[in-house]
Fold this sequence. Notes:
Helices cover about 0% and strands about 50% of the residues. The protein is mainly beta and about 110 residues long. Strand 4 and strand 5 (about 45-50) form a beta hairpin. The chain starts with a strand and ends with a strand.
Amino acid sequence: VQLVESGGGLAQPGGSLRLSCAASGFTFSSADMSWARQGPGKEREFVAAISWSGREEYYADSVKDRFTISRDDVKDTLYLQMNSLEPEDTAVYYCNVESYFGQGTQVTVSS
Length: 111
């Protein structure tokens, strides 16, 4: 299993970023996928998940109505659209399937 995140960077409060996760080594179209994050000095926490069919989405309360998870089964890629970013969203964001995590991509929200 290989998960490679990209798209992180520096954003201003209120700004947007779109994260991508390129997946390989398993049948992506059959896998429930999720995003997690770990802020400075914090435990890793759940952010969002999407079912293998794409019909079901789940979000942490802290990101609901601001973040959107999606998937492209042709490209074997998972996305996280992050809008209305807040300084509290600063974290390393990880793509996750079963017990596997990618290397993460840093998101920093600061003016």
